[in-house]
Design goal:
Number of domains: 1
Largest sheet: 3 strands, antiparallel
Strand content: 15-25%
Number of strands: 3
Strand order of the largest sheet: 1-2-3
Distance between the termini: 109 Å
Radius of gyration: 27 Å
Helix content: 55-70%
Order of helices and strands: HHEEE
């Protein structure tokens, strides 16, 4: 008659192989989750830089005696400072609608990993034109 301890060791050997497969599966999912969260953090950072650039561009363009091109230049400079080479993927536009100056910056956030999609970023800011209030 076989002892019950021998049957238990055979089951443990089967589980040992399953443990490696489970570890690999969990590791792949963990790495994918970490990369996704990191990509989301990069998107939030790029969005924050774009919002700041649009806001400063609108403020600059709205100053008395300043053309819209000054606001566009200021926004592009801030995008370059904050995003580095990735700022080339952004487009900055400015328009005057009555006595309001609007600056819009839109583009794609940098991708951390090539197979992850580059997420779209759009920021728009307005400011009252100081020249409109002058007689």
């Amino acid at each position: 008659m076989r002892s019950t301890s021998c049957a238990g060791s055979a089951d443990r050997r089967k589980e040992h192989g399953a443990t490696i497969v489970e570890f690999l599966g969990v590791s792949v999912l963990t790495v994918a989750c970490v990369l996704s969260v990191a990509q989301l953090a990069v998107w939030v950072w790029a969005r924050d830089v774009a919002v700041t650039a649009a806001h400063e561009g609108a403020r600059t363009a709205a100053e008395s005696g300043r053309p819209l091109d000054d606001g566009i230049g200021r926004a592009r400079a801030l995008l370059r400072d904050g995003l580095g080479e990735s700022a080339a993927r952004f487009v900055v536009e400015a328009a005057q609608e009555g006595d309001v100056v609007a600056v819009r910056a839109h583009g794609r956030a940098p991708a951390l990993v090539p197979f992850l999609p580059a997420l779209a970023v759009e920021a728009r800011a307005t400011a009252a034109d100081e020249d409109a209030g002058l007689p």
